[in-house]
Amino acid sequence: MTGGSFSRVGVVGLGTMGAGIAEVLARGGLAVVGIEVDQDALERGRGHLEGSTGRAVKRGRLSEDAQREILGRVALSVDFADLGDCGLVIEAVPERLELKRRVFAELDRVCRDDAVLATNTSSLSVTDIAVTTGRPTKIVGVHFFNPAPVMKLVEVIRTVLTEPEAVERVAALVTGLGKTPVTIGDRAGFVANRLLFGYLNQAANMLESGHATRDDIDTAMKAGAGLPMGPFTLMDLIGLDTCLEVLEAVYAESRDRRHAPSPVLRELVTAGLLGRKTGRGFYAYGGARDETVDEADVPQPVVGVLGTGPLADAVAALCDRAGSRVRTAAADLGDCDLIIEAAQDAEAGRSLLAAAAGTARQGAVLATTSAAAPVIEQAMATGRPADVVGLHLPEADGTLAEIAATVATGPGVADRAAALAGRLGLTTVRCRDRAGYIVDALRFPYLNDAAAMLGAGYADADSIDAAMTLGCGYPTGPIADLDRLGLDRAVAVLRALYAESREPALSPAPLLEEHVTAGRALR
Ligand code: 3HC
């Protein structure tokens, strides 16, 4: 590995991110100078470095010799003058503009004239920092992702003042460190945070409004969208104070109320419950974990599957795999425990379910999979709404079932539906009867934001996809997701979400509508 044109790099601030960045640089063979404000902070920084590399040793990923070498490359100091020989200095102090400006003034004073100065800010404007220095052409952003030693993305931010050479040298350094640089302009949130935080905040608002529980939302996004972590686990990892800062910064630029921090987030931050780093945020760490709910003991259900098409086929195949008998003829539904309507459109589903309600036995659960109409509309048409739930499979061949109870669903019916779906091998989560259930309600606005970003020309499709896969561990990027899920489905879900919320940002991005009309994929 190589540092390109840099051999000695400074890092100012050795908190979680700064220490992670110092580790990445030292692992890449570079001489690192780590600066902190005082001896105590320096010792904490040393602790981060030893802890993180020690963890790798324990896992057998790093030898003790290699750990010693890495730590030996990092010189720790409380004196800015020790940065005098560095060709690049990366600032990673807390997100306060005044503080960062003071650090940059000091760097300007002690660093060589040709040194490039970088900020790891996630929420402040790089330009705002650059204009107060005497060398605005040499100021860039280098935005690492948490945990820095693991996540492969680094956003390299150029302002309108930055000279191309400084950007190229920093991007080459990032590549040399085995990470992928995405070079972009200076907009709040850059690419990844801009797309990530609208989604995280929406998840917090979903909790706030009682749409679903913390655990169900986290489970849904892992099992239903394949994300490495649910939104609440991730916010706790990032730090709720950082989440609040990023949201405030993005809101200040976007004036989109979806970025106005959710009250629950502010409440936790005010209470000092900042996530993992303080031992408690949305979750409690290190202590007793919450109990999980008991699964009811139910026999293997007989399942009625109504409708034709890919979804009905997928549901029938799922029942088969689980060893459930499947009935598809209207006349055979009498002994079914669960009847699932999986028609291709809401209207067909409604009449199939209404007909089935006439022959289904007492105690059978009637489920509608239609995402295009509220469950309650389908339920009322059956004449026995107390027995009806929504059962949504966000991926037809996936393992997640979202179960929605309406205001008319009888007591215990959603529990029974969840237990029956569990017997079909599905992971179940619960939510209220709202457009998009959990997964689609959270992912399509994010996908729409990505399409809008692409349409606005801020970043290209490859950069947007790289940002989310390499920065946040998503299995696939949003542009690829849109093509895979279908732009027509995206437009349909977004229209339903818009119709319910009248939230302007949820109306489909013009780029999506345009591609649907043209019958073309985004790529
Ligand atoms: N430091 C160093 N290494 C770490 C680590 C840490 N804090 N946490 C995990 N790792 C390493 C482990 O050592 C392991 O490496 P190995 O396979 O070589 O032993 C690897 O990462 C996987 O770790 P685990 O098996 O313990 O845990 P998971 O498989 O659950 O993965 C995760 C953990 C990599 C964090 C994964 O859950 C993930 O990708 N989550 C999403 C994280 C994300 O979205 N980050 C971006 C947040 S936004 C941001 O930072 C921007 C800022 O501006 C707010």
UniProtKB/TrEMBL annotation:
Entry keywords, A to Z: Oxidoreductase
Pfam name, any one: 3HCDH_N
Domain 3-hydroxyacyl-CoA dehydrogenase C-terminal: 189-285, 436-521
Molecular functions (GO terms): 3-hydroxybutyryl-CoA dehydrogenase activity; NAD+ binding
Metabolic or biological pathway, per its Swiss-Prot or TrEMBL entry: Lipid metabolism; butanoate metabolism
Native source species: Actinomadura rubrisoli
Alphabetized InterPro entries for the sequence: 3-OHacyl-CoA_DH_NAD-bd (IPR006176), 3HC_DH_C (IPR006108), 6-PGluconate_DH-like_C_sf (IPR008927), 6PGD_dom2 (IPR013328), NAD(P)-bd_dom_sf (IPR036291)
Family: Belongs to the 3-hydroxyacyl-CoA dehydrogenase family.
Superkingdom: Bacteria
Name of the protein this chain belongs to: 3-hydroxyacyl-CoA dehydrogenase
Any coiled-coil regions, as ranges: none
